[in-house]
Every structure is written in structure tokens, then in C-alpha cells.
Amino acid sequence: MDDQRVDDQRSGARDPRSVAARIDTSAAHPRGLHPRIDTSVAHPARRYDYLLGGKDNFAADRESADRLIEAFPTMRTWAMENRAFLRRAVTHLAGEAGIRQFLDIGTGIPTSPNTHEIAQGIAPDARVVYVDNDPIVLAHARALLSSTPEGATAYLDADLHKPHEILAHPELRGTLDLSQPVALMLVAVLHFIPDSDDPHGLIAPLIQALAPGSYLVLSHVTYDFVPRETADRLNQIVGSEPFRARSTAEFATFFDGLDPVDPGVVPVQEWRAEHEPQPRPTSAEVGGLAGIARIG
Ligand SMILES: C[S@@+](CC[C@H](N)C(=O)[O-])C[C@H]1O[C@@H](n2cnc3c(N)ncnc32)[C@H](O)[C@@H]1O
């Protein structure tokens, strides 16, 4: 792990409005690792970091990702296109849609530009609450807390399986005003929630808690565009990890009852990508879906 990044001077640790000062990443372990970090088993956040070319990953993550790349050689294209969707989505929401509050659940290891950097680059008063359940993300959270003076950021070490805890968390309540619109972001997260954990039931209270004019932002892995053998191979590699790719029709149900934002549910690389380098990668190369809908 790049400890230097954790201690980065860009961090919001001295900012009284940030929670960085309360994140104890030093309580550690000789290598500076958080006691909950198990480096022997592949973790989604670290594997994704590796796919994006980051340095905050370990041998088990790299081995697992390399096996996925072997089965699906354009796996890195998915990761990069997913990240590009996040950038375009936040740009749209902070810009055209005028959103000033973001709840980014399943944040991932900081990857610049992060949600607050994009949003505050457009609206310096934007307020962002990040949530992730992986201790490696917590260990790097300071990089997520470098807010503008006008805006604010906070990080919650919390789990999507407990939406009511997220909503009641004092850091969330101190950072976001839930009487005003919020963009709820679950970007490349819901595929880690199997059907048996009721993903619809987990996001329902979050959606219900948000004011009219809020938005739901989702992206998701799909096997709709890959051969059956590839899908089977990928499922074998992730093995016992909770993971569920969903079809376009299944993914679309997460937006039921909400007002779709143009262009609706589309392959992730196609979402408002007119200004991206052309031609766009194909759906078979990416294997992801995305969409945004307005709440209320
Ligand atoms: C593939 S990364 C996506 C990061 C970022 N949203 C993006 O799209 O670039 C998925 C993240 O979701 C987090 N995650 C998975 N399950 C979660 C849960 N139940 N609660 C909170 N975070 C979760 C993982 O720890 C990981 O950091």
C-alpha cells in the first residue's frame, strides 16, 4: 500500500469540517495496515484499483484480476468506462441538473477525479458523503476529504446492507440536508448484492429518504453482451464471492417508479458519451450497464 498517499498533504485532515481527523489509520500494524485488512484474499475495491492501474492492491487482488482478464480480455475497458460514466454522471448532475449533494455508496479506493473533485469543480459548494464497507477504502479516506472551503465531504465506514444506519449516521446528517435533493450513487456496487440479500429492499429506504428532485445513479455488470462460456468462466473465478451480474431487464427494475433521465438504461460506455473519444468500445468489450433516474 502506498502509505504516502494516505498521509498525503492534500488531505482534509486539518479541515475542521472534515472527518479525516477522526479516522485513525495509524492504529496499525507494522506495515501501517488497518487490522481488518486481509491481504491474502482478493477484495473488489483493490481488484478494481488494479484494473484502473492503481497501486493500492495486493498479490491476491492482482492474481484474481489477472484471471478475470484472461477470461475477459477487455476487463480493464469495463473498469475505465465505468469510471468515465461516473465522471459524466456527476458532471451532468452538478451542472445541468443543479445537484449540490451527493451520497456515493461503494466509493472505492480514491481514484482521481473523485466525486467531490468533479462536483466541486463545477459547484464549489457541493457536499459529498462517501460510504464504503472495505477497510482499505477507509485507510485511504483522507484523499476523499479534501473539500473546497465552500463545500464539505465526509466518509462513512458503513455497509449498504444497513441502509437505515447509513441514513441515521451523524456524519451524513451533519453533511447533507435531506430536505434538499441528493444524488444517490451506487456505481458498480449492486452486482455485489445477490438476490438473496434483496438489493431492491436495501435501496428502497435510501430512495424514500430523499427529497423530490433527487436522483438515483446506477451502473452494473451484465453478461447480456458476452458469450455464455465467458459468463460461466467469470462466475467460476469469482467463486464464492457475493456477485450477481444482471440482465438489462433486471437492472432496469431498480429504476421502477422513477423518472428516467435521457437516454435511460444503456450500455455504460454509451451514457451521454457524445464527447468521448469515438468510436466507443463495443458492449461486448465492456459488459456494463448504466442509468440515471429522477426521484419524485
Ligand atoms: C467496483 S468498486 C466501484 C467504485 C466506484 N463506485 C466506481 O464505480 O468507480 C465497488 C466498491 O463497492 C464497495 N462495496 C461492495 N459492497 C458494498 C457494501 N455492501 N456496502 C458498501 N460498499 C460496498 C466495495 O468495497 C468497492 O469499493
TrEMBL record:
One of the protein's GO biological processes: methylation
Keywords: Methyltransferase, Transferase
GO molecular function terms noted in the UniProt entry: methyltransferase activity
Keyword Methyltransferase: yes
Highest taxon in the source lineage: Bacteria
Bias type Basic and acidic residues, positions: 1-17
Region described as Disordered: spans on this chain: 1-37
InterPro entries per the UniProt record, alphabetical: SAM-dependent_MTases_sf, SAM_dep_MeTrfase_SAV2177_type
Transcription listed as a keyword: no
Matching CDD domains: AdoMet_MTases
Name recorded for this polypeptide: SAM-dependent methyltransferase
Lineage of producing organism: Bacteria, Bacillati, Actinomycetota, Actinomycetes, Micromonosporales
